[in-house]
Specification:
- The structure is a single chain.
- The chain has five helices and no strands.
- Helices cover about 75% and strands about 0% of the residues.
- The termini are far apart.
Length: about 130
């Protein structure tokens, strides 16, 4: 169950990231935005990947449901098209996303540089 949640969250975040990047570039109405995105190759690739990810999640749900005998504990499938529609209804300027691995790496590197500078200043003051 945890793997399913993590997989669906990851797929949603990836799609939201592409949506935010592409939709934030322009201030179009919802319908104009859909038209713009449908012509955008990055968005098209992101949709294909999202649909594949959702299909994989649903396969995992099928496997889990075979293991879980109680109906009330079984999970239902995710509908990729409904998930996409939910994302398209979001305001791209208000979408908050967790930092990417690259952003985390930069933050970590900046913190290390800051600590190094503080240490060097401390060492200089000790002399």
């Amino acid at each position: 169950e945890k793997q399913v949640r993590q997989s669906i969250d990851s797929a949603r975040i990836d799609l939201k990231r592409v949506f935010k990047a592409n939709a934030s570039e322009n201030s179009l109405s919802s319908d104009e935005q859909k038209k713009y995105l449908s012509d955008n190759t990055k968005w098209t690739r992101a949709l294909e990947k999202f649909r594949t990810d959702i299909a994989d999640v649903n396969v995992n749900i099928n496997k889990l449901n075979l293991i879980v005998p109680m109906l009330w504990r079984q999970q239902v499938h995710y509908n990729a098209e409904q998930e996409i529609e939910k994302i398209l209804k979001l305001d791209p300027l208000k979408i908050e996303l967790p930092p990417t691995d690259e952003e985390l790496s930069l933050i970590h590197q900046e913190e290390l540089n800051q600590r190094n500078q503080e240490w060097m200043a401390h060492q200089a003051n000790q002399r």
